[in-house]
Amino acid sequence: MGQPNVLLVILDSVRAQNVGHLGYPRDTTPNIDSFTERATTYLNARSPGIHSISSHVSLFTGYHVAEHRATSHSTSISPGHTIWEDLADDGYRTGLFTPNSIVAESSNLSSFFDDVVGPKRQELVFSDALGPKQVKGDPSYGEYILAALRSDSPLKAIVNGLSREFGRSKGVHDPKREHGGRYVEEFEEWRQSRDGPWAACLNLMDAHYPYIPLEKYVQWGGKELQDLHKKAMGGPLTTQYLGERPFWELEACESLYDDCIRQADTYVEKLFTTLEAAGELENTLIVVTSDHGEGFGEYSVVNDEVRLIDHSWGIGDEVSHVPLVVKHPEQSTSETVETPASLTCFPSVVEQVVDGKTDSFVPDDEQAITTSHRIQEPGDQLPLAKKDREPYFGPWHAVCREFDGTITVDAVRREDYVRYQPSSSHRQNNRSSIERKYVDTLLENLSNIGIVEGVQEIDGKVEQRLHELGYVT
Fold first, then answer.
1. 3-class SS at 10?
2. Which of 55-69, 203-217, 375-389, 427-441 has the lowest mean pLDDT?
3. CATH architecture classification, 5-119+173-468
4. What is the C-alpha end-to-end distance of the chain, expressed in Å?
């Protein structure tokens, strides 16, 4: 066989605790569960960060977040550090397929691929007419109609407003155009159009907010819950649920989220089936994982004053523990690894596979580090009084390792510190200065390597896409 292909599948925002083969009671991932029968499953895989930009930079470069410091949505990193560039030098054709605006548009991460298929969203039905975001403040629909009637193209402006107000997504994200199946199809067209080895990254956002599954995948949610969720859509969930909306509503949205995971799982199965029919599955390194998890109002493991909302802050298992299933070329038997694994190992695993060897996602020191630097002071994006913001400020750090024969996580945030076992709901508070020093010393050894060149300017359309995907820009 020739050089092995490389396929990285990132199920954006899918957390480990909602995945079937990792113990979830709902049948959210039947196809990936079946795939584990001929692959390696990592039970304690950790994302390097809890945001798309930081985790993707770590995945692509092998550096920890504390080393690369890429935390802005519009980060620009210097060339020469990603595994995709190395693969291109080795004769691989590289491709990126994703509706994720952060990866494909606002940062420069897409520039390290030969071919890119990005978001299909359109901000407005009529781009030459007035749209809701062009009206200052937060106008009611009646106020918007008055503004539309005074505009140069009243009918087009009204259609733009109707599309945003009454469309299925109430925003630029259209699940009928952006579902993972579209990107799987475009990846397949790309794969068939090329000779020689290929390396691709598919980031599928089916489970990312807004949680809008296609109708055929609705099993645990339903129209009533979708209608409730729609009322909170159109911008960051943080402003809604730290504001006036009740947390029980966010908690209920986990059922919609589960439907979305089931949807993504179906597209992954389609991807595998197509590769197998083409005779390329066996000669491909396949990595299925997530860039981070998701919060549905859970209390932070570090500080009970903080509730987790999507993946805006925090460091507990909800946002850091991710699925990781790896199939090496010609692998046909299952394996389970309990030792903590880190997604920062992706480049080294790829390098070894290209050299005809097998490597693991378990770091040499057998511990996985997760870091988030958000929220940063003064935290004006938080709809809270200044006196109530401090518990949300980062940086947040967590180290997952084996300690006294048990998988343990040490999580810290400023002066907050907690040790807990991921398999247990019991949290053992521990403010031991000796143990805290261990975490601090580990982080001190991860110095800034200086690959961030700055930030890119992003246009209004991309900024709008980020806003309606829940990001504060």
1. strand
2. 427-441
3. 3-Layer(aba) Sandwich (3.40)
4. 47
Site of tokens 């029980």: 248
Q: Give the separation between CA 310 and CA 432, rounded to whole angstroms.
A: 31
For residue 390, the 8-state DSSP code is: G
Q: What is the pLDDT of residue 122?
A: 54
pLDDT over threshold 60, residue 169:
no
Confirm if 308 and 314 have CB atoms less than 8 A apart.
Answer: yes
Cα within 13 Å of Cα(337), Cβ side: 21
pLDDT category, 218, cuts 50, 70, 90?
A: very high
Q: How far apart are CA 79 and CA 42, in angstroms?
A: 31
Instruction: Tell me the per-residue pLDDT of 288-333, one tens digit each, with 9 for 90 and over.
Output: 999 999 999 999 999 999 999 999 999 999 999 999 999 999 999 9
Q: CA 53 to CA 390: how far, in whole Å?
A: 24
Task: For the chain, give every domain's residue range.
Answer: 5-119+173-468, 124-171
Q: Are 470 and 209 in contact (CB under 8 A)?
A: yes
| Residue-level pLDDT at 473 | 58
Cα 406 from Cα 355, distance rounded (Å): 34
pLDDT for the residue 235:
81
* Token representation of residue 385: 């009084």
Whether residue 85 contacts residue 454, with contact meaning beta carbons closer than 8 Å, is answered with no
Strand-pairing partners, residue 307, are 299
Q: What is the dihedral of CA 297, 299, 303, 308, to 10 degrees?
A: -30
Instruction: Scan for tokens 């020469």, then name that residue.
Output: 80
**DSSP letter string over 247-265?**
HHHHHHTHHHHHHHHHHHH
Contacts of residue 240, Cβ cutoff 8 Å, sequence gap at least 6: 232
Structural tokens at position 357: 């060897």
Q: Work out whether strand 324-327 and strand 335-337 pair parallel, antiparallel, or are unpaired.
A: unpaired
In angstroms, the Cα distances linking 295 to 16, 90, 352 are 12, 40, 35
pLDDT at 138: 56
Phi/psi at 265 (5° precision):
-60, -40
pTM to 2 decimals?
0.90
What's the average model confidence in pLDDT over 44-73? 97
